[in-house]
Protein backbone atom coordinates (compact mmCIF):
# COMPACT_ATOMS: atom_id res chain seq x y z
CA UNK A 1 0.00 0.00 0.00
CA UNK A 2 2.86 2.38 0.79
CA UNK A 3 4.33 1.88 -2.68
CA UNK A 4 0.97 2.57 -4.29
CA UNK A 5 0.67 5.79 -2.27
CA UNK A 6 4.01 7.04 -3.63
CA UNK A 7 2.97 6.10 -7.17
CA UNK A 8 -0.20 8.10 -6.76
CA UNK A 9 1.73 11.12 -5.49
CA UNK A 10 4.05 10.95 -8.48
CA UNK A 11 1.11 10.83 -10.88
CA UNK A 12 -0.57 13.81 -9.25
CA UNK A 13 2.67 15.79 -9.30
CA UNK A 14 3.13 15.14 -13.00
CA UNK A 15 -0.10 16.98 -13.69
CA UNK A 16 1.11 20.28 -12.28
CA UNK A 17 4.65 20.51 -13.70
CA UNK A 18 4.94 23.65 -15.80
CA UNK A 19 5.07 22.98 -19.50
CA UNK A 20 8.03 24.43 -21.40
CA UNK A 21 7.17 27.97 -22.44
CA UNK A 22 6.63 28.63 -26.12
CA UNK A 23 9.17 31.07 -27.51
CA UNK A 24 7.90 34.41 -28.81
CA UNK A 25 9.63 36.57 -31.35
CA UNK A 26 10.58 39.82 -29.70
CA UNK A 27 9.31 42.95 -31.40
CA UNK A 28 10.11 46.64 -31.16
CA UNK A 29 8.10 49.64 -32.29
CA UNK A 30 9.66 51.99 -34.87
CA UNK A 31 12.52 53.95 -33.34
CA UNK A 32 11.90 57.19 -31.49
CA UNK A 33 14.77 59.49 -32.45
CA UNK A 34 15.65 62.15 -29.87
CA UNK A 35 18.04 65.03 -30.68
CA UNK A 36 21.22 65.41 -28.62
CA UNK A 37 24.52 67.23 -29.20
CA UNK A 38 26.80 66.77 -32.18
CA UNK A 39 28.20 63.34 -33.08
CA UNK A 40 27.14 61.21 -30.11
CA UNK A 41 29.44 58.24 -29.61
CA UNK A 42 28.09 56.70 -26.40
CA UNK A 43 24.72 56.78 -24.63
CA UNK A 44 23.98 55.25 -21.22
CA UNK A 45 20.98 55.08 -18.91
CA UNK A 46 20.63 55.81 -15.20
CA UNK A 47 18.24 57.48 -12.77
CA UNK A 48 20.01 60.82 -12.82
CA UNK A 49 17.32 62.86 -11.03
CA UNK A 50 16.30 60.22 -8.47
CA UNK A 51 12.65 59.98 -9.52
CA UNK A 52 12.65 56.23 -10.14
CA UNK A 53 12.88 56.06 -13.93
CA UNK A 54 15.85 55.77 -16.27
CA UNK A 55 17.24 58.93 -17.83
CA UNK A 56 19.83 59.11 -20.61
CA UNK A 57 23.26 60.68 -20.89
CA UNK A 58 25.12 60.85 -24.21
CA UNK A 59 28.73 61.78 -24.96
CA UNK A 60 28.64 64.18 -27.91
CA UNK A 61 32.09 64.50 -29.43
CA UNK A 62 31.79 67.40 -31.84
CA UNK A 63 30.06 69.67 -29.32
CA UNK A 64 32.51 68.76 -26.51
CA UNK A 65 29.78 68.08 -23.98
CA UNK A 66 27.43 65.49 -22.59
CA UNK A 67 23.70 65.63 -23.33
CA UNK A 68 21.31 64.99 -20.43
CA UNK A 69 17.85 63.65 -21.31
CA UNK A 70 15.39 63.52 -18.40
CA UNK A 71 12.75 60.81 -18.76
CA UNK A 72 9.08 61.66 -18.19
CA UNK A 73 8.60 58.06 -17.07
CA UNK A 74 7.18 56.79 -20.36
CA UNK A 75 10.30 56.89 -22.57
CA UNK A 76 9.57 60.43 -23.68
CA UNK A 77 12.19 62.97 -22.70
CA UNK A 78 12.58 66.65 -21.92
CA UNK A 79 14.78 68.56 -24.39
CA UNK A 80 18.46 67.83 -23.93
CA UNK A 81 20.57 69.86 -21.50
CA UNK A 82 24.27 70.18 -22.26
CA UNK A 83 27.16 70.01 -19.80
CA UNK A 84 30.63 70.98 -21.11
CA UNK A 85 33.52 68.53 -20.76
CA UNK A 86 36.87 68.16 -22.57
CA UNK A 87 37.71 67.94 -26.26
CA UNK A 88 35.80 65.16 -28.04
CA UNK A 89 34.34 62.92 -25.31
CA UNK A 90 34.42 59.43 -26.83
CA UNK A 91 33.19 57.44 -23.87
CA UNK A 92 31.38 58.01 -20.58
CA UNK A 93 30.66 56.07 -17.41
CA UNK A 94 27.82 56.55 -14.93
CA UNK A 95 27.96 55.65 -11.25
CA UNK A 96 27.89 56.99 -7.71
CA UNK A 97 31.49 58.14 -7.79
CA UNK A 98 31.44 60.26 -4.61
CA UNK A 99 29.29 57.93 -2.49
CA UNK A 100 26.46 60.39 -1.84
CA UNK A 101 23.69 58.21 -3.28
CA UNK A 102 23.19 59.78 -6.70
CA UNK A 103 24.73 59.06 -10.09
CA UNK A 104 27.72 61.04 -11.31
CA UNK A 105 29.34 61.03 -14.75
CA UNK A 106 32.91 60.48 -15.95
CA UNK A 107 33.79 61.53 -19.50
CA UNK A 108 37.00 60.43 -21.26
CA UNK A 109 38.00 63.04 -23.84
CA UNK A 110 40.03 61.55 -26.67
CA UNK A 111 41.46 64.73 -28.22
CA UNK A 112 42.36 66.54 -25.00
CA UNK A 113 43.60 63.23 -23.54
CA UNK A 114 41.93 63.75 -20.20
CA UNK A 115 39.06 62.75 -17.95
CA UNK A 116 36.30 65.06 -16.70
CA UNK A 117 34.40 64.17 -13.52
CA UNK A 118 30.88 65.61 -13.28
CA UNK A 119 29.30 65.52 -9.83
CA UNK A 120 25.51 65.33 -9.51
CA UNK A 121 23.68 67.50 -6.96
CA UNK A 122 20.94 64.85 -6.79
CA UNK A 123 18.63 66.62 -9.25
CA UNK A 124 20.60 65.92 -12.43
CA UNK A 125 22.49 69.21 -12.20
CA UNK A 126 26.14 68.45 -12.92
CA UNK A 127 29.29 70.36 -12.06
CA UNK A 128 32.83 69.54 -13.15
CA UNK A 129 34.87 68.66 -10.07
CA UNK A 130 38.11 67.28 -11.51
CA UNK A 131 40.11 66.95 -14.72
CA UNK A 132 42.68 64.15 -14.88
CA UNK A 133 45.36 63.88 -17.58
CA UNK A 134 45.40 60.54 -19.40
CA UNK A 135 47.35 58.70 -22.07
CA UNK A 136 46.78 59.54 -25.71
CA UNK A 137 43.31 58.82 -27.09
CA UNK A 138 41.41 57.20 -24.19
CA UNK A 139 38.74 55.19 -25.95
CA UNK A 140 36.52 53.11 -23.66
CA UNK A 141 35.81 53.23 -19.94
CA UNK A 142 34.05 51.19 -17.25
CA UNK A 143 33.45 51.60 -13.53
CA UNK A 144 34.08 48.99 -10.85
CA UNK A 145 35.46 48.56 -7.36
CA UNK A 146 38.69 47.05 -8.62
CA UNK A 147 40.68 47.48 -5.39
CA UNK A 148 37.84 46.28 -3.13
CA UNK A 149 37.79 49.39 -0.94
CA UNK A 150 34.08 50.10 -1.29
CA UNK A 151 34.07 52.88 -3.90
CA UNK A 152 33.92 52.92 -7.70
CA UNK A 153 37.20 53.12 -9.57
CA UNK A 154 37.63 53.57 -13.32
CA UNK A 155 39.34 51.49 -15.99
CA UNK A 156 40.16 53.00 -19.39
CA UNK A 157 41.22 51.24 -22.59
CA UNK A 158 44.02 53.00 -24.47
CA UNK A 159 43.60 51.85 -28.04
CA UNK A 160 46.90 53.23 -29.37
CA UNK A 161 48.97 52.06 -26.39
CA UNK A 162 47.48 48.54 -26.28
CA UNK A 163 46.83 48.86 -22.58
CA UNK A 164 44.28 49.41 -19.83
CA UNK A 165 44.81 52.05 -17.15
CA UNK A 166 43.27 51.80 -13.67
CA UNK A 167 42.25 55.03 -11.93
CA UNK A 168 41.66 54.43 -8.20
CA UNK A 169 39.03 56.54 -6.43
CA UNK A 170 39.72 58.04 -3.00
CA UNK A 171 36.01 57.69 -2.19
CA UNK A 172 35.10 61.30 -2.96
CA UNK A 173 35.33 61.13 -6.76
CA UNK A 174 38.97 62.20 -6.77
CA UNK A 175 40.91 59.95 -9.12
CA UNK A 176 44.60 59.30 -9.64
CA UNK A 177 46.24 57.55 -12.56
CA UNK A 178 47.25 54.10 -11.39
CA UNK A 179 48.87 51.09 -12.96
CA UNK A 180 48.75 50.16 -16.62
CA UNK A 181 48.37 46.65 -17.99
CA UNK A 182 49.11 45.37 -21.48
CA UNK A 183 46.49 43.73 -23.70
CA UNK A 184 46.12 42.92 -27.40
CA UNK A 185 46.51 45.22 -30.39
CA UNK A 186 43.92 48.01 -30.48
CA UNK A 187 41.66 47.59 -27.43
CA UNK A 188 38.53 49.31 -28.71
CA UNK A 189 36.23 47.55 -26.22
CA UNK A 190 36.48 47.00 -22.46
CA UNK A 191 34.29 45.27 -19.90
CA UNK A 192 34.54 43.91 -16.38
CA UNK A 193 33.12 41.03 -14.36
CA UNK A 194 34.13 38.28 -11.97
CA UNK A 195 35.20 35.85 -14.67
CA UNK A 196 37.13 33.42 -12.47
CA UNK A 197 34.63 33.36 -9.61
CA UNK A 198 37.00 34.53 -6.89
CA UNK A 199 34.92 37.51 -5.79
CA UNK A 200 36.79 40.40 -7.41
CA UNK A 201 36.35 42.18 -10.74
CA UNK A 202 38.44 41.07 -13.69
CA UNK A 203 38.76 42.81 -17.06
CA UNK A 204 38.43 41.83 -20.71
CA UNK A 205 39.21 43.82 -23.85
CA UNK A 206 38.19 43.32 -27.47
CA UNK A 207 41.20 44.05 -29.66
CA UNK A 208 40.28 45.30 -33.10
CA UNK A 209 43.65 44.93 -34.83
CA UNK A 210 44.73 41.57 -33.36
CA UNK A 211 41.20 40.14 -33.77
CA UNK A 212 41.03 38.70 -30.29
CA UNK A 213 39.95 39.15 -26.67
CA UNK A 214 42.32 39.64 -23.74
CA UNK A 215 41.19 38.41 -20.29
CA UNK A 216 42.97 39.91 -17.27
CA UNK A 217 42.59 38.44 -13.79
CA UNK A 218 42.52 40.72 -10.75
CA UNK A 219 44.47 39.76 -7.63
CA UNK A 220 41.90 41.63 -5.55
CA UNK A 221 43.97 44.79 -5.19
CA UNK A 222 43.58 46.17 -8.74
CA UNK A 223 46.69 44.40 -10.01
CA UNK A 224 45.93 42.50 -13.21
CA UNK A 225 47.58 39.60 -15.01
CA UNK A 226 46.88 38.59 -18.59
CA UNK A 227 45.33 35.13 -18.28
CA UNK A 228 44.16 34.27 -21.78
CA UNK A 229 43.92 35.55 -25.35
CA UNK A 230 41.01 34.18 -27.41
CA UNK A 231 40.86 34.55 -31.18
CA UNK A 232 37.54 35.91 -32.47
CA UNK A 233 36.35 37.29 -35.79
CA UNK A 234 38.01 40.07 -37.76
CA UNK A 235 37.85 43.48 -36.11
CA UNK A 236 36.82 42.51 -32.57
CA UNK A 237 35.21 45.83 -31.67
CA UNK A 238 33.08 45.45 -28.53
CA UNK A 239 32.13 42.88 -25.92
CA UNK A 240 29.68 42.35 -23.08
CA UNK A 241 29.59 39.86 -20.18
CA UNK A 242 26.49 37.75 -19.54
CA UNK A 243 25.62 34.31 -18.19
CA UNK A 244 24.35 33.14 -21.55
CA UNK A 245 24.18 29.43 -20.76
CA UNK A 246 22.69 29.78 -17.28
CA UNK A 247 25.45 27.90 -15.47
CA UNK A 248 26.27 30.67 -13.00
CA UNK A 249 29.41 32.15 -14.55
CA UNK A 250 29.92 35.01 -16.99
CA UNK A 251 30.32 34.29 -20.68
CA UNK A 252 31.23 36.90 -23.30
CA UNK A 253 29.55 38.09 -26.49
CA UNK A 254 31.92 39.82 -28.92
CA UNK A 255 30.92 42.02 -31.88
CA UNK A 256 33.34 41.56 -34.78
CA UNK A 257 33.08 44.70 -36.87
CA UNK A 258 34.70 43.64 -40.13
CA UNK A 259 33.54 40.02 -40.02
CA UNK A 260 29.93 41.26 -39.59
CA UNK A 261 29.25 38.66 -36.95
CA UNK A 262 29.09 37.97 -33.24
CA UNK A 263 31.20 35.45 -31.32
CA UNK A 264 29.87 33.66 -28.23
CA UNK A 265 32.66 32.79 -25.78
CA UNK A 266 31.62 30.27 -23.14
CA UNK A 267 33.28 30.37 -19.74
CA UNK A 268 34.46 27.04 -18.33
CA UNK A 269 33.75 28.43 -14.85
CA UNK A 270 37.32 29.42 -14.04
CA UNK A 271 37.70 32.34 -16.43
CA UNK A 272 38.88 30.23 -19.35
CA UNK A 273 36.90 30.92 -22.52
CA UNK A 274 36.30 29.15 -25.82
CA UNK A 275 34.26 30.20 -28.86
CA UNK A 276 31.04 28.17 -28.95
CA UNK A 277 29.10 29.93 -31.72
CA UNK A 278 29.50 32.56 -34.42
CA UNK A 279 26.33 34.30 -35.64
CA UNK A 280 25.93 36.67 -38.57
CA UNK A 281 24.50 40.12 -37.80
CA UNK A 282 23.89 43.21 -39.91
CA UNK A 283 26.70 45.25 -41.44
CA UNK A 284 29.50 46.61 -39.27
CA UNK A 285 28.53 45.74 -35.67
CA UNK A 286 30.17 48.31 -33.42
CA UNK A 287 28.58 47.71 -30.00
CA UNK A 288 26.86 44.88 -28.14
CA UNK A 289 24.59 44.47 -25.12
CA UNK A 290 22.90 41.54 -23.34
CA UNK A 291 19.52 41.43 -21.61
CA UNK A 292 16.33 39.39 -21.36
CA UNK A 293 14.61 41.01 -24.32
CA UNK A 294 11.83 38.45 -24.79
CA UNK A 295 11.03 37.90 -21.11
CA UNK A 296 11.72 34.16 -21.07
CA UNK A 297 14.28 34.23 -18.26
CA UNK A 298 17.53 33.97 -20.21
CA UNK A 299 19.80 36.67 -21.60
CA UNK A 300 19.55 37.64 -25.25
CA UNK A 301 22.03 39.73 -27.24
CA UNK A 302 21.73 42.82 -29.46
CA UNK A 303 24.30 44.63 -31.59
CA UNK A 304 24.38 48.19 -32.95
CA UNK A 305 25.44 48.06 -36.60
CA UNK A 306 27.10 51.27 -37.72
CA UNK A 307 27.06 50.95 -41.50
CA UNK A 308 23.55 49.53 -41.85
CA UNK A 309 21.91 51.82 -39.28
CA UNK A 310 20.25 48.90 -37.53
CA UNK A 311 20.12 46.88 -34.34
CA UNK A 312 20.38 43.09 -34.63
CA UNK A 313 18.51 41.11 -31.95
CA UNK A 314 19.55 37.51 -31.30
CA UNK A 315 17.35 35.47 -28.96
CA UNK A 316 18.90 32.88 -26.67
CA UNK A 317 17.61 29.31 -26.32
CA UNK A 318 18.85 29.31 -22.71
CA UNK A 319 22.05 27.42 -23.45
CA UNK A 320 24.00 30.19 -25.19
CA UNK A 321 22.74 29.19 -28.62
CA UNK A 322 21.57 32.36 -30.33
CA UNK A 323 18.89 32.51 -33.02
CA UNK A 324 19.42 34.19 -36.40
CA UNK A 325 19.42 37.97 -36.13
CA UNK A 326 16.28 40.06 -36.50
CA UNK A 327 17.08 43.64 -37.51
CA UNK A 328 15.41 46.90 -36.47
CA UNK A 329 16.14 50.31 -37.99
CA UNK A 330 17.56 53.10 -35.82
CA UNK A 331 19.33 56.39 -36.58
CA UNK A 332 22.32 56.87 -38.85
CA UNK A 333 25.60 55.23 -37.78
CA UNK A 334 24.73 53.80 -34.35
CA UNK A 335 27.94 53.60 -32.31
CA UNK A 336 26.71 52.34 -28.94
CA UNK A 337 23.84 50.29 -27.53
CA UNK A 338 22.41 49.74 -24.07
CA UNK A 339 19.26 48.18 -22.61
CA UNK A 340 16.91 49.38 -19.89
CA UNK A 341 13.24 49.61 -18.95
CA UNK A 342 12.74 53.14 -20.21
CA UNK A 343 8.93 53.16 -20.20
CA UNK A 344 8.47 51.41 -16.86
CA UNK A 345 6.39 48.50 -18.13
CA UNK A 346 8.71 45.74 -16.97
CA UNK A 347 10.47 44.83 -20.20
CA UNK A 348 13.70 46.08 -21.74
CA UNK A 349 14.00 48.79 -24.36
CA UNK A 350 17.10 49.35 -26.49
CA UNK A 351 18.94 52.66 -26.83
CA UNK A 352 21.53 53.60 -29.44
CA UNK A 353 23.72 56.68 -29.94
CA UNK A 354 23.76 57.65 -33.62
CA UNK A 355 26.75 59.75 -34.61
CA UNK A 356 25.73 60.74 -38.13
CA UNK A 357 22.16 61.81 -37.27
CA UNK A 358 23.04 63.57 -33.98
CA UNK A 359 20.41 61.73 -31.99
CA UNK A 360 19.69 58.72 -29.84
CA UNK A 361 17.17 56.07 -30.86
CA UNK A 362 14.80 54.40 -28.41
CA UNK A 363 13.36 51.05 -29.49
CA UNK A 364 10.23 50.37 -27.41
CA UNK A 365 9.77 46.70 -26.63
CA UNK A 366 6.24 45.69 -27.65
CA UNK A 367 6.52 41.99 -26.88
CA UNK A 368 3.50 40.56 -25.04
CA UNK A 369 4.59 37.76 -22.74
CA UNK A 370 3.35 34.28 -23.59
CA UNK A 371 0.99 32.62 -21.11
CA UNK A 372 2.10 29.60 -19.09
CA UNK A 373 0.10 27.00 -17.17
CA UNK A 374 1.68 26.02 -13.86
CA UNK A 375 -1.12 23.73 -12.68
CA UNK A 376 -4.85 23.15 -12.27
CA UNK A 377 -7.17 21.83 -9.59
CA UNK A 378 -8.90 19.46 -9.45
CA UNK A 379 -7.08 17.24 -11.92
CA UNK A 380 -10.13 15.16 -12.82
CA UNK A 381 -13.90 15.35 -12.80
CA UNK A 382 -17.03 15.10 -14.94
CA UNK A 383 -18.46 17.68 -17.31
CA UNK A 384 -19.49 20.74 -15.30
CA UNK A 385 -16.66 20.50 -12.75
CA UNK A 386 -15.30 23.91 -11.71
CA UNK A 387 -11.56 23.97 -12.42
CA UNK A 388 -9.05 26.60 -11.26
CA UNK A 389 -6.09 27.07 -13.61
CA UNK A 390 -2.96 28.81 -12.31
CA UNK A 391 -0.10 30.22 -14.36
CA UNK A 392 1.09 33.51 -15.80
CA UNK A 393 0.06 36.13 -18.36
CA UNK A 394 -3.62 35.15 -18.58
CA UNK A 395 -4.84 38.73 -19.10
CA UNK A 396 -6.92 38.96 -22.28
CA UNK A 397 -7.48 35.20 -22.52
CA UNK A 398 -9.91 34.43 -25.34
CA UNK A 399 -10.33 30.65 -25.11
CA UNK A 400 -9.91 27.68 -22.78
CA UNK A 401 -10.16 24.11 -24.09
CA UNK A 402 -10.22 20.66 -22.47
CA UNK A 403 -9.04 17.92 -24.80
CA UNK A 404 -9.93 20.18 -27.71
CA UNK A 405 -13.43 21.09 -26.50
CA UNK A 406 -13.89 24.80 -25.90
CA UNK A 407 -15.47 26.21 -22.76
CA UNK A 408 -18.46 28.46 -23.51
CA UNK A 409 -17.50 30.83 -20.69
CA UNK A 410 -14.76 31.29 -18.12
CA UNK A 411 -13.54 33.93 -15.67
CA UNK A 412 -10.07 35.48 -15.78
CA UNK A 413 -9.69 36.24 -12.07
CA UNK A 414 -6.21 37.72 -12.50
CA UNK A 415 -3.14 37.47 -14.70
CA UNK A 416 -2.30 34.26 -12.84
CA UNK A 417 -5.68 32.53 -12.36
CA UNK A 418 -8.65 31.38 -14.45
CA UNK A 419 -11.81 29.57 -13.32
CA UNK A 420 -13.72 27.49 -15.85
CA UNK A 421 -16.20 24.60 -15.92
CA UNK A 422 -15.40 21.46 -17.91
CA UNK A 423 -17.41 21.88 -21.14
CA UNK A 424 -19.69 19.37 -22.83
CA UNK A 425 -17.80 17.25 -25.32
CA UNK A 426 -14.60 17.38 -23.28
CA UNK A 427 -12.40 14.30 -23.30
CA UNK A 428 -9.33 13.46 -21.28
CA UNK A 429 -6.46 15.59 -22.56
CA UNK A 430 -4.50 18.81 -22.25
CA UNK A 431 -5.88 22.13 -21.08
CA UNK A 432 -5.03 24.98 -23.45
CA UNK A 433 -5.35 28.70 -22.65
CA UNK A 434 -5.26 31.15 -25.57
CA UNK A 435 -4.29 34.83 -25.19
CA UNK A 436 -3.34 37.52 -27.73
CA UNK A 437 0.31 36.49 -27.27
CA UNK A 438 -0.23 32.79 -27.98
CA UNK A 439 -1.18 29.50 -26.35
CA UNK A 440 -0.24 27.80 -23.09
CA UNK A 441 -0.66 24.03 -22.85
CA UNK A 442 -0.73 22.08 -19.60
CA UNK A 443 2.03 19.58 -18.96
CA UNK A 444 -0.42 16.89 -17.90
CA UNK A 445 -3.92 15.79 -18.84
CA UNK A 446 -7.19 16.69 -17.20
CA UNK A 447 -9.06 13.40 -16.77
CA UNK A 448 -12.75 13.58 -17.68
CA UNK A 449 -14.75 11.08 -15.59
CA UNK A 450 -18.33 9.84 -16.10
CA UNK A 451 -21.12 11.63 -14.32
CA UNK A 452 -22.17 9.82 -11.13
CA UNK A 453 -24.94 7.29 -11.91
CA UNK A 454 -28.49 7.78 -10.57
CA UNK A 455 -30.49 5.04 -8.84
CA UNK A 456 -33.94 4.63 -10.46
CA UNK A 457 -36.89 5.75 -8.33
CA UNK A 458 -39.34 2.88 -7.80
CA UNK A 459 -42.97 3.23 -6.65
CA UNK A 460 -43.56 2.16 -3.06
CA UNK A 461 -44.40 -1.50 -2.66
CA UNK A 462 -42.90 -2.57 -5.98
CA UNK A 463 -39.79 -4.66 -6.49
Tell me about this structure.
The protein is an all-beta fold. The chain has 2 domains: 32-363, YVTN repeat-like/Quinoprotein amine dehydrogenase (Methylamine Dehydrogenase, Chain H), CATH 2.130.10.10; 372-448, Sandwich (Immunoglobulin-like). It has one helix at 2-14, and strands at residues 32-35, 40-46, 55-60, 65-69, 81-84, 89-95, 104-109, 114-120, 126-133, 138-144, 153-158, 163-167, 180-182, 187-193, 202-207, 212-218, 224-231, 236-242, 251-256, 261-267, 273-280, 285-291, 300-305, 310-314, 326-329, 334-340, 349-354, 359-363, 372-377, 380-381, 386-392, 399-402, 405-406, 410-414, 417-421, 429-435, 438-448. The strands form 9 sheets. Strands 30-37-36-32-33 form a 5-stranded mixed β-sheet, with no helix packed on it. 49% of the residues are buried. Mean pLDDT is 92; it is low at 1-23. This is Gll0714 protein. Residues 1-23 form the signal peptide. It holds the Pfam family FG-GAP_3. Residues 442-463 are annotated as: Disordered. InterPro entries: FG-GAP, Ig-like_fold, Ig_E-set, Integrin_alpha_N, IPT_dom.
Offer a concise description of the structure:
With 463 residues, the chain is mainly beta. It is built from one helix and 37 strands. The protein has two domains: 32-363, YVTN repeat-like/Quinoprotein amine dehydrogenase (Methylamine Dehydrogenase, Chain H, 7 Propeller), CATH 2.130.10.10; 372-448, Immunoglobulin-like.
Distance between the termini: 41 Å
- Give the percentage of residues in beta strands: over 45%
Radius of gyration over all CA atoms, rounded: 28 Å
The largest sheet, given as strand count, sense and whether it forms a barrel, is: 5 strands, mixed
Give the mean pLDDT. Answer: 92
Number of helical runs?
A: 1
Q: Return the CATH architecture of the largest domain.
A: 7 Propeller
Secondary structure class reads mainly beta
Q: Can you say what the CATH homologous superfamily of the largest domain is?
A: YVTN repeat-like/Quinoprotein amine dehydrogenase
Amino acid sequence: MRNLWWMGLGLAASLVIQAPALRAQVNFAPARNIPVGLYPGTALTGDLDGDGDLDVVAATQDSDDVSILINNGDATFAPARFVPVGDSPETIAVGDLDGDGDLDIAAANRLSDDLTILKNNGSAIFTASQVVSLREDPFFMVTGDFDDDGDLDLAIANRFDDSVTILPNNGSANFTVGSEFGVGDGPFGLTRGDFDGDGDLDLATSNRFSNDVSVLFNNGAASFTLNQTIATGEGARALTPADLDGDGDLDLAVANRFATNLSVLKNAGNGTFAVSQTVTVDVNPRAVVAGDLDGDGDLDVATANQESGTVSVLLNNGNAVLSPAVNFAVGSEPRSITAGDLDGDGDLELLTANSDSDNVSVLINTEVALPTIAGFSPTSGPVGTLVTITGTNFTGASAVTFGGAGARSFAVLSATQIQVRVPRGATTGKIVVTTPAGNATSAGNFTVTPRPGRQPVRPAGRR
